[in-house]
Structures are given as C-alpha cells and as structure tokens.
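--- STAGE predict ---
source: upstream dedup step, 1 unique chain passed
mode: sequence only
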Amino acid sequence: MELLIKLLAVIALLAVVISLGSGLVFLLRDRSESRRTLNALTVRITISVALFLVVVIAMLTGIITPNPSPF
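--- STAGE serialize ---
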C-alpha cells in the first residue's frame, strides 16, 4: 500500500509540472480571451490539493510515516 501511495505521489507531481508548463505555453501563445491558462492552473491547484490530502490521510492512518529527524 505504501508503494502505491508513493507511486501516486510521483505521478501527481509529474502531472502538476506538466499542467504548469501547459499553463505557461497557453499564457505566452494566447492573446485572446481564451480561458486555457486559467483551466491549466485550476487543474494544477486541484491536483496539488488532492495530493496534499492523500499524504495527510496516509500519515494519519499510518500507511506512511515521516522520517525521524537526525538531530
């Protein structure tokens, strides 16, 4: 289960980067009233919030544990 959560996190982070890049491309290319930039950034925020919630829930249920501090 822990491996599945980690794989989901990596895939979500890649999706965030792709969405951010597409938002930049749309921002630079679209000079009209297009909402593609807004849609790309909305997708990025939604994925980021979902990833945060998955990590918090996984930590609270004990599926994943944070590393102890070396100090």
